[in-house]
Amino acid sequence: MDRTDSILETLRMIEEEKLDIRTVTMGISLLDCADQDGERARRKIYDKIVRHAARLVEVADGIQAELGIPIVNKRLSVTPIALVAGASGDADHVAFARTLDAAAAAVGVNFIGGFSALVSKGATPGERTLIDSIPEALATTETVCASVDVGSTRAGINMDAVARMGEVVRETADLTADRHGFGCAKLVVFANAVSDNPFMAGAFHGVEEPDVEVHVGISGPGVVKRALEGVRSAPLDVVAETVKKAAFKITRAGQLVGRLAAQRLGVPFGIVDLSLAPTAEVGDSVARILEEMGVERIGGHGTTAALAVLNDAVKKGGLMACSHVGGLSGSFIPVSEDIGMIEAVQLGAISLDKLEAMTAICSVGLDMVAVPGDTPAPILAAMIADEAAIGVMNSKTTAVRVIPAVGLGVGETLEFGGLLGRAPVLPVNRFGGTAFVSRGGRVPAPVHSFKN
Amino acid sequence: MRAIMTVTSLDHVGIFAAVTTKLAELGVNILDVSQTLMDEYFTAIFLVDLGGSERSIQEVREAVREVEQRERLSIQLQSEEIFKAMHTI
């Protein structure tokens, strides 16, 4: 067999370089569950989720056994709940979150995304109710993830929503103070949110999507790092080519898993998300890729440029390997979930400012960042505004998942455990520009958004 | 279904015999074999057809576990699809 080397390479990727499929996520539309009676709406939601997702875990586990590649997470995304719950006129939407939590537990998935509102231009009463319900919803459920879209390139930035989300992050941290603000790990504030994202906590199933579909999120930073070890001291165009080839192979595995999952579940295959998703395990780090490229420590000068080379090459390699690309499709740089990022924070190599700069390149900006537990809401809002501005002005998705680590200060470490890892608390700039954020109103859409 | 079975272990007498005997018992047809010795590690790759066996790939995997333990081998059994997907355009 002349394929011996290819076979051994794949085995090495899985066993030594931790190649896995990070998530198979089923998107389910709940638009047809809206009802004037909240109780009836929740019953319809539960029934529809359980009906469609009953076999998701079993099918994914079967594919894992057959292909010999781990499928780490099985997840659900649903229509932004504000659109469904709004019809009920309920005074709060916490009961809807509990229903999602119960449905997720019934089908055995570890997260369900879509406790969401899209308010980039303005909010309906239902959307305001949902946003107000986020802190309690996240404090009283396990698997539910919330997200709010506060800006878009076409609409500009809804600064009232930005200011409110600063408060919501703060309230969520305080309501989950017994776990140092853990609830905020399940809350993402977006600009230019995408409707087919399979990754948590920011997944939701957009209104333009079909009734039910499955998406795949790939991973594999270890594979890219190992490939680059073979081209040390080569120029950067060789680096880019090497990343492309590794990304192609990783993505092909994702495409195959998605195709099989869709076939066996009898639903359309949505997209493959080409993000390189790290975990806190050794050998599964995006930071280490940049360091292999020659950046002394992630966060040091050269980091943004190296990230640009990596991100672009991953996309170019992945695009040809699958039928539809979607989701966030950029490198993830979650501080707590990447051993190289954690070390960089401890060494003082990376700051909030550098993370913000890196957002100009990759999709998710301040991700799983712990800040001092007493950081006030206006400063959190100003951080959100900065990230949203990068997204809106550069026609890309940006996101903030920041955790005010209640009870902890700079130098201490917030332990999440499991996939969420641990986050050393980063200092924030105390000159927070609070008056700017509290002006409210809307930041107008940028001139280059008018393309019609 | 066609699958790839990869067997690795410290080299010793009888690895091939043990594995192929078990596959024959299970009704699994061997289509192709390649083997190499990497350092002191024996590595054999079998292309097998599970079509003649009544067992699923998971059941075959379970059934070879006994040989794996007795002969101190490491055995991977995976659908051929994953290799085709990752290494061909």
TrEMBL record, chain A:
<comment type="subunit">
    <text>Homodimer.</text>
</comment>
<dbReference type="Pfam" id="PF05167">
    <property type="entry name" value="DUF711"/>
</dbReference>
<protein>
    <recommendedName>
        <fullName>UPF0210 protein GCM10011374_31540</fullName>
    </recommendedName>
</protein>
<comment type="similarity">
    <text>Belongs to the UPF0210 family.</text>
</comment>
<dbReference type="InterPro" id="IPR007841">
    <property type="entry name" value="UPF0210"/>
</dbReference>
Automatic annotation (TrEMBL), chain B:
<dbReference type="Pfam" id="PF13740">
    <property type="entry name" value="ACT_6"/>
</dbReference>
<dbReference type="InterPro" id="IPR045865">
    <property type="entry name" value="ACT-like_dom_sf"/>
</dbReference>
<dbReference type="InterPro" id="IPR002912">
    <property type="entry name" value="ACT_dom"/>
</dbReference>
<dbReference type="InterPro" id="IPR022986">
    <property type="entry name" value="UPF0237_ACT"/>
</dbReference>
<protein>
    <recommendedName>
        <fullName>UPF0237 protein GCM10011374_31530</fullName>
    </recommendedName>
</protein>
<feature type="domain" description="ACT">
    <location>
        <begin position="4"/>
        <end position="80"/>
    </location>
</feature>
<comment type="similarity">
    <text>Belongs to the UPF0237 family.</text>
</comment>
